[in-house]
Amino acid sequence: MESSVVSRKLDQAVGFLREAGIDLWIAQFARESYEQPTPVDTLAVGCSVTWPAAFLVAASGRRTAIVGTGDVANVRAAGVYDEVVGYVQDVAVPLREVMSDVNPTRVAVSYSVADDMADNITHGMFLMLQGILAGTPYFDCLVPAEGILGKLRAYKLPVEVRRIQDAIEMTHQLFGLMPQLLREGVTESELADRLRGEGRARGGAPAWDPRYDPIVNFGPGSGFGHSEPGTVALAPGMLVHIDLGLKVEGYCSDLQRTWYVLRPSESEAPLEVQEAFAAVRVSMDAGFETLRPGIPGWTADRQARDALLRAGYAESEFAFGHQLGQTAHDGGALLGPPWPRYGTRPEMPLGEGMVFAIEQAVPTEAGPIGLEDDVLITAGGAEYLSQPQTALEYVRL
Amino acid sequence: MESSVVSRKLDQAVGFLREAGIDLWIAQFARESYEQPTPVDTLAVGCSVTWPAAFLVAASGRRTAIVGTGDVANVRAAGVYDEVVGYVQDVAVPLREVMSDVNPTRVAVSYSVADDMADNITHGMFLMLQGILAGTPYFDCLVPAEGILGKLRAYKLPVEVRRIQDAIEMTHQLFGLMPQLLREGVTESELADRLRGEGRARGGAPAWDPRYDPIVNFGPGSGFGHSEPGTVALAPGMLVHIDLGLKVEGYCSDLQRTWYVLRPSESEAPLEVQEAFAAVRVSMDAGFETLRPGIPGWTADRQARDALLRAGYAESEFAFGHQLGQTAHDGGALLGPPWPRYGTRPEMPLGEGMVFAIEQAVPTEAGPIGLEDDVLITAGGAEYLSQPQTALEYVRL
Fold this sequence. Notes:
Chain A is 35% helix and 21% strand.
């Protein structure tokens, strides 16, 4: 992430700090962060470090990085933190000095039980931080920064929405290639390789683990969920389901589309497949229509979930929607059921400027039907950033 | 990392568990681990997961993965954990069940204050784990796994040493290109790009953050430490210092070499430069001669450090050596001074089968002299895996 965007996100963070009554945010306290990167690095740090390093953002707007001398040039070059303090022997000394100088009452640290994307400090580094602050007035001031980090990830700046739109646009381009890529006998993994190559050629990176980005399912025997494309070869009578995300200039898309491969004798898909598509479409629409600022995420999941149940399908094992940004699962408020697996995230309210990927899927005798689109929460509801698939698409081999 | 190597490392880990009297090792308890990867993933897990997932290794040899249903296919495909338990709503239920079944007295968790590479669980996930175990007999059984993880990273299997040697061999090949790459006016960043390209073409990846792998310094005005190659153009009278690491099949090299660019009138480097090279060489030799199983790492650092001081140079700000493996800074026992920055790592004893990168550098009026080589600790001492640079190399533009 270039420093101008990180810098603007830190300006935005200062507002959230003041709202929350937090005097100082230890955005990160980490070491060897190239080997152990976390989502806060590209959001609020701007570079990797080797030796223990603290990145501090005060409610006053002051930004201070305390880093080993070998990392100083690098952190200065990143240009996000105006004040860069180098140390040789012990990070504790300058860290305690800066803490005394800011003299905070509430200090937020980037960890969270509920929100995976806001859980960025290791347990060992948290213990080291406690050790450094032992005996100071700040030892008892540490609180989780999940509220600040959740908002910072969630409330997109216009530049962030534009980048997500760029990633979506490129993903639509790849979907446009599908009629020519779907050939008799092509395997799931061959198609996945081809789509990855076409993405790379356009400057896009995978939005998640490239071993299953894209997920490609041909027919009913293919793996479900986050599984790698396999050796199944394409044949008539199969559904083709693709879940594809691209990262462009640091921001992600996440979309699913479904095609049906007609048998020579067919002019449309079997009734069961058509009904399943319709049920997924109705579920997507029911969830989408619910979206607006202020509602907790579970209400949208409930509408989408119930629509599918009413159509006679088994209950979905997954959340209806997740936030999208620098990562494909951007943490924070979730359009998910109130299951322990999702913690408190389904209770969090939606807000204008959040971006969600909404998705629904059902299995059929011809393979899975899956749809996923990316939406922006607006003042009055939500709008699609992608062009939803409204009808099952047909191909002939 | 392919599963066969991960599987052999887990066999090795079982021995360390028994030695340490640990009944169960929670190798990882993580979520969204593609977005927040840690070094334990390629060492002891074998794939990434989306939902909260626990990877358990018992002293009995039993290996159990407890993962969200959407990750099951993926974890099975990785083939490292024989027992894969899928859950839909709550990881706590199957995790408590497996804990009861194993009924451990001491449970190691992958965190460490001292050893960065053994500090792999987030603070939020540690709190979640404590929450799940609250009210069970296992709540008070959690201890840091740093000893097990430190040994597992440190004691290389023969297959691991061979891969490090492959990475070193490729690095030597790139150094062999230097006489033809060093041309009047080439900039640091141009040379860095060229070396990265030559590495990629041979199937090597950067061993650390590619923004400063390689580090390239032309002359005395260049950035120090972990800094990005800049716009300095090569000219006679400059030292050329390269710090380059490659990752080949998951294992790293880390080497430094130094060249002097002769002025038309010169047949050798200025005396100050020659003396500085000699001092670095003497320091490297003094440290290397000290290496053998059983010594704490600081003793080798001390010998190398004192040799440099005796030659009249300022004290080094860095450790003399660090371990090398799947990462360029592989954690655990460190050949470093007893400074707080390095925690307890300089006290840890060396052992046969460990691999270290040893390094020394001094600034001169013509630029930095820096040397770094990779060595294997043997029963009787240590042997070089790389071919050390014994004399300053000269180039003419």
